[in-house]
Amino acid sequence: MQDELGGFIIKGRLDELRKSKRFAIGFALLLVVSIIVSGCTGNNGPNNPDSVVNEGNEPNADEPRVSMTMFMGDSGLPHPDGVDPSNNKFINIVEDYANVDLEIDIPSYADFQTRFNLMTASGDMTDIVHSWLPDEAYPLARQGAFIDLKSYYDNSPQVQKYITPEMMEFAKDPVSGNYWRIPMAWDKGPQGSGVHMMRGELIDQYNNGVWPTSVEEWIEFFRVVKREVPDAIILSNSVAGDYVFGNGGGVIYYWYGALPYQWRVEDGEIIPNVLTPEFREATQVMRDLYAEGLLDKEFATNDDQTYNERVINNTVLLQVMSADNIAAGASYYKTEPTLPPHAKDVKWLFAPPLSSPPSVLRDPRYAEAKSGLPIITHGLYIPESTQDKDRAWRVIEGFASDELYEALFWGYEGEGVTYNTVDGQRVPTDKIGTGSEDYWSLHLALLFGFVDGQESKQAANLTVLGEDYHKEVYDSIEVIDQQARANGIGDLPGYAAEGDALLQAPESRLAINSFAVEAIMGRISMEEFDQRVQQWEQQFREVIYGPMQAYLDANKDELLAQGVQHIGW
């Protein structure tokens, strides 16, 4: 699991990274779904939203307990052996709140998309659905598969405590204007992504504690490490579906402000990064690193497992990572008993942003961190086929209950077991946090968000990391967070690709992979690379980016007001 549930677990928020235009890692989540759900009536409103307001967790005395079904993903944090997904101390909080017995269908992370597609294709859906695939769920909802939840939301103070009206607007279907899901909040953690140094101790060991300030200085540092540690791989990568350039494969492109599958706005015009001078120069640098042996020879074919093994055993230095992962990853390296002894001395922290960016970079802000939306793609849905929609909504409220919040972030057992109160402050024990017995339960933060609970997380990390290392880690995160907040939202809220723009996106990425990889590996010349880029532009630019440009032009003022600053650069 990635990034969302912990920096070391690289699948937790891959759903968001996969879809983020600011980050080059992720699987292809844009598979086309053309499914007619059987048995849909088209009634998208709640039965009686006023009847489901429940500010406490006590069911009505005369209300019978009912059985309901739920489809849910574990976001890469599976239940431990012996823990029943449908009957455990955490999910029971939700069940008691809603006065239901849940039978939960929870596929493995790897199987989630396939199982979701099979369920929706069959039309035989559970009563409540959790998914991180809005690009697939929303078209189904327009056909009548899911109901609009806005009236329920408007009458639920409990959900409104954690999901703001602004979040609901960001989650709104841009095509129909309906509110198909209650989204997962993502506003509590640090913002932005940056170049993550996984072996920060080597800066002290081989560079006198001085961080490189330019791409050229970093490459000199790579050479020093390679001389001192001959089996070091320096930069590696893992391939995720039709996204080749993730992890260390995105570092050079990040510094050049030209991540391969993303785009920028120049004077109001959307420019795919692949067409920029920065992308070409970054590819040339990657080509040189490959020839010199500073880039993994298998960078274009490694899977996650191979990549992770190389990170741990072969001195891989850098990767692109989101800010909400760094501290959890640092704690993991300190506490995970299966890691080799040298891992205990590893320093996980952000490298400082380059103070001398590449001269070809048109605007340094293109290579800087930007904020995400206050939500991510996770959400809870109620199918039209659900018989008791009011009770299904109560289940959703249960996932927003204060009792669940407390149990997830401060521990189910509470004071005296998972934390102690010292001088009026709660101090976590080793019973909560990364690597603890109940850490899996974080995947139940389906409304709060996996990055919530920062107070307990920082306190737990302080216990693990010690004061000095804790300060180093969080100081490095703060730099990226402040940069991201200053630059505003980095995506294009409200835009959803449709038709040919959606259908041809995977083919577009495969084409980029082909000519970029071949150029890096020296299989084609840079002149041939230029020709292939031109062919890509003729084939894909208008069909994919034309609708996006039209959306930007029609909504620019509103987007700027929402904090999408980069469209005005």
What does this structure look like?
- With 569 residues, the protein is α+β, with helices and mostly antiparallel strands.
- The protein folds into 2 domains: 31-189 and 375-407, Periplasmic binding protein-like II (D-Maltodextrin-Binding Protein, domain 2, 3-Layer(aba) Sandwich); 193-368 and 490-568, Periplasmic binding protein-like II (D-Maltodextrin-Binding Protein, domain 2, 3-Layer(aba) Sandwich), CATH 3.40.190.10.
- The protein contains 20 helices and 12 strands.
- Strands 2-1-3-10-4 form a 5-stranded mixed β-sheet. It has a 3-stranded antiparallel β-sheet with strand order 8-5-9.
- Helix 2 crosses helix 14 (389-398), helix 13 runs parallel beside helix 16 and helix 16 (454-465) packs antiparallel against helix 17 (467-487).
- It is globular.
Keywords for this entry:
disordered N terminus, globular, 569 residues, 20 helices, D-Maltodextrin-Binding Protein, domain 2, 10% strand, three-stranded antiparallel beta sheet, single chain
Biggest beta sheet attributes: 5 strands, mixed
Report the end-to-end length measured between terminal Cα atoms. Answer: 34 Å
CATH class of the largest domain, please? Answer: Alpha Beta
Considering DSSP H and I runs of 4 or more, what fraction of the residues is helical?
25-40%
Integer average pLDDT: 88
Q: What's the CATH H-level homologous superfamily of the largest domain?
A: Periplasmic binding protein-like II
State which percent range the strand residues make up. Answer: 5-15%
CATH topology (fold) name of the largest domain: D-Maltodextrin-Binding Protein, domain 2
Give the radius of gyration. Answer: 24 Å
Q: Any idea how many domains?
A: 2
Q: In terms of per-residue confidence, which ranges show pLDDT below 50 for 5 or more consecutive residues? A: 1-57
Number of contiguous helices: 20
Strand order of the largest sheet: 2-1-3-10-4
The gross shape turns out to be globular
The number of strands is 12
Could you say what the CATH architecture of the largest domain is?
Answer: 3-Layer(aba) Sandwich
Helix-strand category: alpha+beta
